[in-house]
From TrEMBL:
Biased composition (Acidic residues): 118-128
A biological process from GO: maturation of SSU-rRNA from tricistronic rRNA transcript (SSU-rRNA, 5.8S rRNA, LSU-rRNA)
Name of the protein: Uncharacterized protein
Species in which this protein is naturally found: Zosterops borbonicus
Superkingdom: Eukaryota
Family membership noted in the UniProt record: Belongs to the SAS10 family.
Pfam families documented for this protein: Sas10_Utp3 (PF04000)
GO CC terms, sorted: filopodium; small-subunit processome
Length: 154
């Protein structure tokens, strides 16, 4: 408990000194890389203690920190899976300098293509139904007339 409190005080000192940026919170990637580093350090300490003939229950608490770090890494895995597409997209944009043509999010509707550009389209079959009145603000387009429901025998 004293070690955790000391670690917390050290982090607080670094934040107040401006050594750690916290305006946008801690990055998921930063947490992952620091957790992996801590895991490897504790694992090296534990293996070194074991090779010298020591016990796995070393007084430094490396075994407990290993278990805690492993739990943190396991909890991060689903978050990484959810953000995998976005991270890969950001990495592609950073390496290629822009958006790729095969990016599914780049296919968006063009409003200019949605407006009727030609009045001579093949909509002649419903001219008698709607009266051909012009809707205000559509620039000469006809009013929408829904199709009539025709009973169908099965």
């Amino acid at each position: 408990a004293a070690e955790v409190a000391a670690h917390g005080r050290e982090m607080l000192r670094r934040v107040r000194a401006g050594q750690m940026e916290t305006k946008e919170g801690v990055s998921l990637l930063q947490v992952r890389s620091l957790s992996l580093l801590s895991y490897l350090q504790d694992l090296a300490l534990l293996v070194g203690t074991k090779t010298r003939g020591g016990s796995l229950n070393c007084p430094g608490g490396a075994r407990e920190r290993l278990m805690e770090t492993r739990v943190v890494l396991e909890k991060l895995r689903p978050l990484e899976q959810r953000l995998k597409y976005h991270l890969e997209k950001l990495l592609r944009a950073a390496t290629s300098g822009g958006r790729g043509a095969e990016d599914p999010l780049s296919f968006r509707p063009a409003p200019s293509n949605m407006a009727a550009q030609d009045d001579n389209e093949d909509d002649d079959d419903d001219e008698g139904q709607g009266g051909g009145a012009k809707a205000p603000g559509l620039g000469g387009g006809r009013r929408y007339v829904p199709p009539r429901l025709v009973p169908v025998n099965y």
